[in-house]
Amino acid sequence: MLLTGESLQKGQTAANLRVFDVNTFELIKEIPVTNSHVVKTLWHPKLNQIFVGCGNGLVRCYYDEKRSFRGAILCASKSYRKKKPADVVGVSQIITPHALPMFRQEKSKSLRKKQEKDRLDPRPDLPITSGQGGRVASSGGTLSSYVIRNLGLSKRVDDDQDPREAILKYAKEAAENPYWIAPAYKKTQPKPIFNDEPDAKKAKQE
């Protein structure tokens, strides 16, 4: 037998796959393929299947269930997996128009509207630490506030507080009890030595 494909002629709706007898050149079989040209035909001797490539990118495979071996039969013989009733769980809405307001369910909304509503009114996160001074939220989220709070101060320092006023509160205590300056030079420089000359006079001497 001789196998060949034909091009799509003008006015023809489908190109055919033709099978001829080699001895008599008699047409044995004519199979319509697709509404495009048949570009290439291939017969696989081991699989005993015919593959046809078309001009529109379509590939068709012809086989006999009794004479063909593997190939496309492995794909065609697979059956779809039947869904069990336990695999699908349907969630039905119970409508109770005469129920009390506290037990009444809301009407089902689309997923898009529900996401938009959740985005518009999000719930703020609760504070990690407890408040102080009558305030619920924790104050002072900057690095300076964190350092000041961890220097042994009993009260928290707000970010909007004037730093100059906060320092002047401890000016008198720092003068009487210089805890952060004097002990550092107690062994190396027990008697403080200061430069009383102004910078302008010092520059002239140089």
UniProtKB/TrEMBL annotation:
InterPro entries: WD40_repeat_dom_sf (IPR036322), WD_repeat_GAD-1 (IPR051858). The keyword Mitochondrion does not apply. SUPFAM superfamilies: WD40 repeat-like (SSF50978). Residues 106-139 are annotated as: Disordered. Keywords: Repeat, WD repeat. Residues 106-124 have a biased composition (Basic and acidic residues). Coiled coil: none annotated. One of its GO terms (cellular component) is nucleus. This is Gastrulation defective protein 1. The lineage of its organism: Eukaryota, Metazoa, Ecdysozoa, Arthropoda, Hexapoda.
